Amino acid sequence: MKLTPLSLLLLAGLLLSACAPAATPAPLPATVADLPTPVIVAAAITEPAPPATEPAATQAASPETVSPTEAPTSPAEPPPAVEVIAEGLNLPWELVFLPDGGMLLTERPGVLTLLGSPQGKLTVEGVHHQGEGGLLGMALHPEFAANNYLYLYFTTIQNDQVINRVERYVYRDHTLSDKLLIIDNLPGARYHDGGRIAFGPDGYLYITTGDAGNPQSAQDLNSLAGKILRLRDDGSLPPDNPFGTAVYSYGHRNPQGLAWDSQGRLWATEHGPSGFESGNDEVNLIEAGKNYGWPVIRGLETRDGMVTPLVESTRSDTWAPSGMLILDDMIYFAGLRGAALYAVPTYNPSLASLETYFKNEFGRLRTVVLGPDGLFYLLTSNGDDKLIRVDPKQLGQ
Known about the structure:
By secondary structure, this protein is mostly beta strands. Helices cover about 5% and strands about 35% of the residues. It has helices at about 5-20, 55-60, 145; strands spanning about 80-90, 90-95, 105, 110-115, 120-125, 135-140, 150-160, 160-170, 175-185, 195-200, 205-210, 225-230, 245-250, 255-260, 265-270, 280-285, 310, 320-325, 330-335, 340-345, 355, 365-370, 375-380, 385-390. Strand 10 (about 195-200) and strand 11 (about 205-210) form a beta hairpin. The N and C termini lie far apart (about 110 Å).
């Protein structure tokens, strides 16, 4: 018997109903045209999508995505070992870095110079420039960013006498205002005026003075000549100064460098005798109340109650040491007559461990300063002077 389409549908329905649980049967359609139209979902068969990836730049920055066969990114080029960054200076003496990155320096004829500024040079009133005297040391208050206090050490004339003094100013927009006298009547002369000032880790201001051509004054505790002084930031006396005066140490001829090591210890450089007896320049470890011997002893000579330098140049050499810094337990100091940068370790200071750099390359060197970039900045003292930037990591290479 030939089955019609309708017969096939009826047969399929009977078979399904026999297998399914009992239920009220739905009425069957009378014709094929009465069947619902089927809904066909078109689902294309494709390969699985790969996992999402990071942007190429992000991948390159991630260590996990860098192939071990890829060459690493080239490091930045190191700074030049030596670079002259300013010329035409006139006997610069000290350099400080301002919070905004500016470089401010003193020039001995009495000029405060802001490098790279259209404001240029600022004349400091009262400076008397003669011989080694003039506008010398400079220091920023430890809280300079908040109070703008700037300290200057300079030679001047008072009652027809040459003296040195330290003054504090408010320094803002390359102008000086609100002058305050910190200390006055420091003995002055054409030579041996000291002049370095610096704030120590204790927050006090330290000041070096020379013997001003009168050697015996260095042993006189009633004189401020030939001393290292210590004051509060307003010029008043710290309560623990050893003699109840501004004097911190004495017996100095002409100290011109101050720096503190990682242990908080104070070091100083000092000029030995000049002329026929030149030599015996010193690097001293400074302690409160100690007598450093000038003019009673010199070099490695000893005397009860007097301190012998840890390093000295002997009479066969002259450094004429001035400004200094300490970095990684190494003392670096500039040499004027020595025309070099010297280095000696704090943990083994001796003539045998002394290193010498740039001998006679730049002439007389006045000071060396550590910049905020970790580089050294050297000032020459030849009359037509330079500021030189040095990478300490490349010294001697």
